[in-house]
Design a protein that fits this description.
Elements (H helix, E strand, L loop, with lengths): L1 E6 L4 H11 L5 E8 L3 H11 L3 E4 L2 H13 L5 E4 L1 H9 L5 E4 L7 H9 L3 E4 L3 H17 L2 E4 L2 H9 L2 H6 L10 E8 L17 H4 L9 H9 L1 H13 L7 E5 L5 E7 L4 E5 L5 H9 L30 H12 L1 H19 L5 H14 L8 H19 L3
Parallel strand pairs: 1-2, 1-5, 2-3, 3-4, 5-6, 6-7, 8-9
Antiparallel strand pairs: 8-10, 10-11
Length: 396
């Protein structure tokens, strides 16, 4: 029996993880569930999955949840705050940690799980975007096993040779016959929207992803393709890529989740339904295969699969991320922070869709980009970028 802590349990990744876990009660049990402030969602999960511990980072939400837990006579301990997240991620009772907290808030608890040597199922992009070298060094020092959950990175992982899978960002791809990694992206809801109409698109339209069911923040990131940019940065660290070994291609059908090209001309692609239960089940069962509950592809009815290069005029955030990736850790941390501020403002109606890329670009131009290597330096860089983003946003 493998015991899990699920960080970000009320989000879409958390829901998909719990669906796979519930289908294999003989193999998995839930030790801890965490959320920020969704009391109703967490209470429902507690009733269904009966974890030992429930964590709410918002203290008032934790108090409200505890009252409902007591009233329902459930034997579940309720904890509050960021330190509690780190504690349940590193707990000795835990074998596996699903790291699915969206944004920079997921960095410290994910790093706590890594330092504790856990099997870490990584769905939090920002952990590597903000602290790539530090994070990967911690993986190797602790002996933690890092398994990528994002459909794209999971697809790449499955298509790579066993030695590269085991190397976790330390081996050279060229030593194993790999010439290029191709990240696929659907292009989001605005792939065919006239460019002149892009700047004024609404939050509702941006969150209406054509293929995937996701939370609001990641849906907006998919609409700008900043999400693919973050995945590009993440792939650089996960697979130890050089710039010429990593590229992005638009694939509207989201059937091929990513591809690996080899020096002999072979291309190995991982395919499947656009359902996160597939990569989650792969990680939960690794190195074995377990049922995900997802129907297999029907190739007789699949239809055409198409591919195009991304247009930088349509997706300026993607180019910002690619450039930041090779500019260094401070640049990727700054971009991530600025984007989080911008997306929150867009969803709140304070800026327009087109302002997201403009704000991110302005912050990258204006903020100092020192060399960062320690966690406190990374967090300070993140804080400075957020302050700069708020300052610049007041001018929009």
């Amino acid at each position: 029996m493998r015991r899990l802590s699920i960080l970000g349990a009320t989000g879409s990744i958390g829901a998909s993880t719990l669906a796979v876990v519930a289908a294999h009660p003989e193999t998995f049990s839930v030790y801890a569930l965490t959320a920020h402030s969704n009391v109703d969602g967490m209470f429902a999960l507690c009733q269904q999955h009966r974890p030992d511990i429930a964590v709410m980072t918002n203290p008032k939400a934790a108090q409200a949840l505890e009252q409902r837990i007591v009233s329902a006579n459930l034997n579940i301990e309720v904890l509050a705050g960021e330190q509690a997240l780190c504690d349940v991620a590193a707990a000795t009772e835990v074998d596996m940690v699903m790291a699915a907290i969206v944004g920079a808030a997921g960095l410290l608890p994910t790093l706590a799980a890594v330092k504790a040597g856990k099997q870490v199922l990584l769905a939090n992009k920002e952990a590597l975007v903000m602290s790539g070298q530090l994070f990967m060094d911690a993986v190797h020092q602790s002996g933690a096993q890092l398994l990528p959950v994002d459909s794209e990175h999971n697809a790449i992982f499955q298509a790579l040779p066993f030695a590269v899978q085991q190397g976790a960002g330390r081996v050279h791809l060229s030593d194993h016959g790999v010439s290029q990694i191709l990240l696929t992206g659907s292009g989001g809801p605005f792939r065919e929207t006239p460019l002149i109409e892009l700047p004024t698109q609404t939050p509702q339209a941006a969150c209406n992803h054509p293929n995937w069911s996701m939370g609001q923040k990641i849906s907006v990131d998919s609409a700008t393709m900043l999400n693919k940019g973050l995945e590009y940065i993440e792939a650089k660290w996960l697979f130890n890529c050089q710039r010429h070994e990593l590229d992005v291609v638009i694939h509207p059908q989201s059937v091929i989740h990513s591809m690996v090209q080899y020096v002999d001309g072979s291309v190995i692609a991982q395919m499947g339904q656009p359902d996160m239960r597939t990569p989650i089940a792969h990680c939960l069962g690794f190195p074995e295969r377990i049922s995900s509950g997802v129907a297999p592809l029907n190739f007789a009815t699949l239809g055409a699969l198409t591919f195009t290069a991304p247009d930088s005029a349509r997706y300026p955030c993607l180019q910002l991320a690619i450039d930041a990736c090779w500019a260094g850790q401070a640049a990727t941390t700054t971009l991530n922070a600025a984007n989080e501020v911008a997306v929150a403002a867009f969803l709140d109606g304070r800026i327009q869709f087109g302002d997201i890329a403009n704000l991110c670009g302005q912050v990258l131009e204006r903020v100092q980009l020192p060399k960062v290597s320690q966690l406190d330096e990374i967090l300070a860089c993140d804080e400075e970028a957020r302050a700069m983003a708020m300052q610049q946003m007041s001018r929009f």
